[in-house]
Amino acid sequence: MLPKLKLCGNHSSQDLENTMKSEADYLGFVFAESKRKVTSEQVTKWLQKYTDEPIKQQLVALFVNEEIDVIKQTMEEVPFDIVQCHGSESPQYVEALRKKVKQPIWKVIHSNEQALTYMGSFAGLVDAFIIDYRHEGAWGGTGQRFDWGEIPLYQQEANKQQVPLFIAGGINNTNINQLLTFHVDGIDVSSGIEQDGFKSEQLIAELVERMRENEKHISRSKGALR
Fold it and tell me: 45 burial class (0-12, 13-18, 19+ CB within 10 angstroms)?
């Protein structure tokens, strides 16, 4: 079974067109200071082109330590399906946010020595985790990755909480096969599918193809063991 695929950082009408055509499960939009930052007005305008055809992907709104009322307003203005908390939000913050929005909440955990303890503090509060790399001065989207050898530790905690685990940070067509050996629930890609700063239809297609080839290889291997 293929991991769920999230294509994040859509920041133009062309980005949205290219990612919508893909087999991705989720499309992400950044509402935080970033070169990929968007506004509610922009996303609403881009989505208006598709009022006659339902969007097959779920839409994810990404915030960093944002005021809860701002998130609530954004989720009411745009038909987002999921809230992604990408900063240093506390469990108390997420608990308060849950009372204000009806959508599922995903929490990003930036890999470091305190990450597992931090992750554990959200037990029962979030609907999925994303493990990402944190570079000084940027919350994500840097094209850099954390030590993937630590993934099993995060998987154990996610399994304990019975929620899916996504991996983000530095994922591209050259290393996707290595990541897939960990059998993660989901993959979150941003810069790895960009060319000249925008989402590339070709790079997205290549990523999906590599994921499919890996799945076929696993199926063949299981068949040979029977």
Answer: exposed
Tokens coding 170 = 């530095």
Q: Is the dihedral of CA 40, 195, 134, 127 positive or negative?
A: positive
Give the predicted TM-score (pTM) of the model: 0.92
Cα 221–chain centre separation: 29
All structural domains of the chain, each given as residue ranges with its CATH number in brackets, are 4-225 (3.20.20.70)
Cα end-to-end span (Å), the chain: 18
Tokens at 70, concatenated: 């701002």
Contact 155, 130 (CB under 8 A): no
Q: What residue ranges in 9-68 does DSSP mark as E strands?
A: 26-30, 58-63
Residue 69 buriedness (CB in 10 A; 0-12 / 13-18 / 19+)? exposed
pLDDT tens-digit readout, 191-225: 999 999 999 999 999 999 999 998 887 766 666 55
